[in-house]
Amino acid sequence: MNLYFRLIWLFLWRNRHCNKIGFLDTSRLAYRALPTDCDINFHLTNSRYPAFMDLARTYMMAEMGFLKRFLKLGWMPIVNAAEFTYIRDIKPFAKFEIETKLVGWDEKYFYIEQRFVSERGLHCIAHVRGVFVCKGKQVAIATMLAEVGFNDPAPQLPPEVIKWKSFLLLKKECNLPTPAGEPMEFRAAS
Questions:
Q1: Which residues contact 15 (CB under 8 A, 6 or more apart)?
Q2: Helix (H, G, I), strand (E, B) or coil at 149
Q3: Among candidates 85, 69, 67, which has minimal Cα distance to 27?
Q4: Model's pTM, two decimal places?
Q5: pLDDT digits (tens, 9 = 90+) for 104-147
Q6: Under the phi-then-psi rule, with left for phi > 0, alpha for psi from -120 to 50, and beta for the rest, what region is 169?
Q7: 93's torsion region: left (phi>0), alpha (psi -120 to 50) or beta?
Q8: 10 Å Cβ neighbour count for 102?
Q9: Euclidean distance between CA atoms 58 and 38, whole angstroms
Q10: What phi and psi, each to the nearest 5 degrees, are found at residue 118?
Q11: Quick one: how many helices (H) and strands (E) in the chain?
Q12: What burial class does residue 46 get, using C-beta atoms within 10 Å of its C-beta: 0-12 exposed, 13-18 middle, 19+ buried?
């Protein structure tokens, strides 16, 4: 329930008083781990990380100046895949910051890196792959870039994101049913 209050606070206050950042800059959003965010192990429960990440990505779009425009266009962000690496726990009442940055895109998806950091250091690093959808159809990356006025070349995806993309493709190929009589073909991950 407290995430709903945080979402309302984000829309009513934080979005109106946020910093302005560039399209490829890092957004920072601070929170405190409340006892209701924690599990029986007395640390931030794993299910809270993606929920906080949703809030941080929304805030990043507001800082970039695109949130209101995308909402008016009816563009809704959809997460296609996410991966997490947990490094150290976040204790109850600890302050932490979520650093969110668009690290690149390909012909179909955009890729975002999110880090949970505090005075104790890095707690979690995650990558999210997503798209924008409008009226049930995917908004092309080129359309999104034109809407935000970004004309520079795409940044080089980090090596870990390139490997993750290969892994996601392999998972898809191994788990989608093949038509009867067709052999399954595997490509080596690069």
A1: 59, 62, 67
A2: coil
A3: 67
A4: 0.85
A5: 999 999 999 999 999 999 999 999 999 999 999 999 999 999 99
A6: alpha
A7: left
A8: 21
A9: 23
A10: -150, -175
A11: 5, 6
A12: exposed
Phi, psi of 103 (to 5 degrees): -100, -10
Token pair listed for 14: 């934080």
C-alpha torsion sign, points 52, 87, 84, 156: positive
Pairing between β-strand 137-139 and β-strand 110-118 as defined by DSSP bridges: unpaired
Tokens read off for 178: 């093949």
**Tokens 């012909």 belong to which residue?**
107
**What is the largest distance, in Å, between two alpha-carbon atoms of the chain?**
60
Lookup: tokens for 174: 């191994």
> From CA 132, how far away is CA 76, in angstroms rounded?
5
> How many residues belong to the chain?
190
